[in-house]
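Final report, Chapter 2: Outcomes

The project's central promise was a pipeline that accepts a single protein chain and returns its three-dimensional structure in a standardized token representation, suitable for archiving and comparison. That pipeline is now operational. To close this chapter, we reproduce one record exactly as it appears in the project archive, with the input sequence first and the structure output second.
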Amino acid sequence: MTKVTIKDTQNPTIIKFEFPDFITQNESFEFKNIDEAKSSPLAQQLFYLPFVKTVYISGNFIAVERFSIVEWDDVKEAVAEQIEAYVNKGGVIINADENRPKKQAITVYGESTPNPAALKFVVNRMITKNAVEFKNIDQSAPSPLATELFKFPYVKEIFIDENYISV
């Protein structure tokens, strides 16, 4: 059973309902009305309460901003109970949005090359479709990465291919 803790905030119109665990994955959401809250069935449900102005969902909490037609002391326990009942019945807080780009971890490791003056940096994903070579910073305008690398005084040439960069 999930138990929600009620916390006051600096703003007297906003109150936080904290969960014992994280409810989002490094994301924050702000909903100003029921239509904006399509990705959050719980936020949509909260908007049926006539005093709910804004719903914020982030980390381990849901914060609700109220209109001035009520005081939090009169309704916060009921809102906490409604959130707990919804979550404990298996209700969805945030739907995973298929259209939202998924964050992917990128790994880079260095390899030596037959040329002792060059290093090869291999990336775990495709970085270009066409191999490109830059002999100096003046040629690197099409590649912001190459331009940044040329800012190091020891970089003389850069070669970029599908999943690696040689410097």
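Archive annotation: The longest strand covers residues 52-58.
This record, like all others produced under the grant, will remain available to the consortium after the project formally closes.
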